Amino acid sequence: MSAAVEAETDTARSRRPSNTVLRAALVLVVVLGSLTIGIWLWARPRDDVSPPTSDSTPLEVVTTYLDAINARDFETSNKIPLPEHHDGLWSRPGTWGNVHDLRLTEPDHHDAHVIFSFTPHGVGGFAGGDEEIFGFYLDRINGQWRITGYDVA
After folding, report:
1. pLDDT tens-digit profile of 97-143?
2. Which of 43, 51, 67, 139 suits 24 as a labelling partner, its CA being 20 to 30 A distant?
């Protein structure tokens, strides 16, 4: 082989990425792709929850809301509170876990307060593991109960 051809071959080889770089890039693509798919599978909606109707009681509205959050059906869960009271607090993955003792306090025809006990699993600012008491305020607006506020009871 002539010296000129050999010099061109060496120059071309030095411009090509090494096999180690190509393997590292392939591993990075596979890891990032797997991670992306895994997160999507974990966070995707689990079930479709029917939104409450105008005949639904405040307890049914809160139960539907919690069921929608636990099913990660954010389309339904985001329809229940009024937009100005929603603030995106529950639009991320997490579950209410073991909700029980739902009770309506001081109801009338236009507003209600529903409190309940639950064990949080990644919801809002709750650490999880310990049972908590929480409540939602509801107002009857245009014939439908809507969540307008919340509190830690």
Report:
1. 777 788 888 777 788 999 888 877 665 556 556 777 888 899 998 88
2. 43
CATH number of domain containing 85: 3.10.450.100
* Three-class secondary structure of residue 144 per DSSP: strand
The residue with tokens 């010099």 is 7
Find out whether 49 and 76 touch, Cβ atoms under 8 Å. Answer: yes
Amino acid identity of residue 153, one-letter, is A
Q: How far is Cα 104 from Cα 58, in angstroms, rounded to an integer?
A: 8
Q: In this structure, are 33 and 100 located in the same domain?
A: no
142 domain-assigned? yes
pTM over 0.85: no
Same domain, 38 and 74: no
The answer to whether residue 138 sits within a structural domain is yes
More confident residue, 118 or 85: 118
